[in-house]
Amino acid sequence: MKIRVYLQNQRGALFILMLAIVMVFLVAGILFVTLVTTDAKISARHRHSTVAFYIAEAGLAKAILSMSDNFGLQDPMIGTLNGGMFSVTFTPESGGRILLTSVGTYRNAQRTIKVKVLLGSWPMFKFGPERRSSTPQAILTPLIPDWNYDTGSPIYSSPVIEGGIVYFGCDDGNVYALNALSGAFIGTFPTGGRVTSTPAIDNGVLYVGSWDTYMYAIDVITGEELWAKNDPISPDVIQSSPGVVNGVVYYGADNGKVYALDAETGDLLPGWPFSTGGAVVGSPAIYNGTVYIGSLDRKMYALDAITGQLKSGWPYTTGGEIHSTPGIENGRIYFGSDDSYMYVLNESGSRLSRVKAQGTLHSSPAVLNDWIYFGSGQKKVHAFRWTGSKLKNEWRYNTQDAVLSSPALCNNVVIAGCENGWVFALDLYSRGLRDKHATDGPVPSSPAIFADNIYATSTDGHLYAYRGSFSSPGPVNLVNFSWYDRY
Q1: For residue 263, which of 280, 254, 250 has the smallest C-alpha distance?
Q2: 69-105: b or e for each residue (b if 16 or more CB lie within 10 Å)?
Q3: CA geometry: angle 451, 432, 285, nearest 5 deg
Q4: Residues near 374 by Cβ (< 8 Å), separated by ≥ 6?
Q5: Could you tell me which of 180, 184, 181, 244 has the C-alpha nearest to residue 209?
Q6: I need a surface site. Which of 84, 283, 288, 475 has the fewest CB within 10 A?
């Protein structure tokens, strides 16, 4: 009897044990399924987030590439990729920067990348050392007057832009620095004479000549003078706008000499200066190791950029004084003379072509894709095209007064100032008037282009900024990169 009861009790315990084991497995199974499901959800979420991040990156890359083509700063860029979508917005900031915000979305996940880009610059007279005075960007008209700044004294210097700051010289002896987007005053650097020379900026240093006979080097961050040099034997007025290449500052002076200074120290390079037979008021163009510069002695010179020696086959003699700064494209040197001719020479000093304009040609040519634009003393803006063997007249526009200003080009319009005080915007290929704006004095200086603004100085003492109704800033430089998650 006791054995039977014991066995019955054992069966009950065994049943309870088996039931407990089943419950354990059941609970473990439920937990396993729950964990697997949760892991799957988490994994899917991370996968979706990763895909959203890559979509945001792709949108950002497309936006940066598009900034060398036409785009509107006010319009977001929207696209789809791998079942998701991206949206990129452009927000202008101070200092010439644009904030790009790219949001990538994939299913229920979003990732955002923010990048700041610095817009391209216009660092010296006629843009660069080849003095082409042209950029690849587009600015559509009408031009909208954005802001202007009054110095109180006439301005003959052209504006230059670097790092979102616009610089220019003034007859009051100062070099001015303004915020390029807002026009806010930043500072001035005083010299001892008029500043009609256009500054050049290279590696954080501004170089500019003055009527006090000195070439100055100024730190653009601190505004401090780094050095000031003049000719110790025959100092004279500097109207020529410097060109800076490979750590050397090139310029001319009214004493008829052409100089090459070490950009860091201001020391004169061995073999320099080079003496011409007349005042040098135009600016040097530097191309393929050669410095091209005209003189009032009616000659165009080609000098070795290192030794300062005259190149074989040069100089080339014209029938009038040369105030014009050469513009160089594909080994062809374009420049005007007071004999009313626009010349085309090759690097050997041989004439390829010349065309007769009207009046003196103080205006320097702007060059873009074999088209050449310049102003004349007989109230015209001229457009010629290089055909492969000669210059062909394509169009001319009557401005009603002399054009001493050297035009500035983007890929759809010609911008030029006039002695009647107008700033003209002309169609690049058809001579049609796109827009014009009046100042209160002659505009002999060359305009500059930066972001969606066009800048022009006037002898009425103002720097004017006109904003294009639609634009692209051309090449950009990445200056900051950051991102954050958003779900």
Answers
A1: 250
A2: eebebeeebeeebeebbbbbbbeeeeebbbebbbbbb
A3: 55
A4: 324, 336, 342, 357, 361, 363, 364, 365, 366, 381, 382, 406, 407
A5: 244
A6: 288
Measured CA to CA, the distance from residue 480 to residue 154 in angstroms comes to: 39
What is each CA distance from 49 to 53, 106, 382, 448, in whole angstroms?
A: 6, 7, 57, 45
Q: Domains in the chain, please, with CATH?
A: 2-119+476-486 (3.30.1300), 139-471 (2.130.10.10)
Lowest-confidence region among 71-80, 444-453, 473-482: 473-482
Please check whether residue 147 is in contact with residue 182, taking contact to mean a CB–CB distance below 8 angstroms: yes
Rounded Cα distance between 27 and 32, Å, is: 8
Contact 339, 105 (CB under 8 A): no
Alpha-carbon gap, residue 280 to 295, rounded angstroms: 5
Rounded to whole angstroms, how far apart are CA atoms 170 and 96?
23
Which pLDDT belongs to residue 2?
44
pLDDT band at residue 125 under the 50/70/90 scheme: very high
CB 318 within 8 A of CB 341: yes
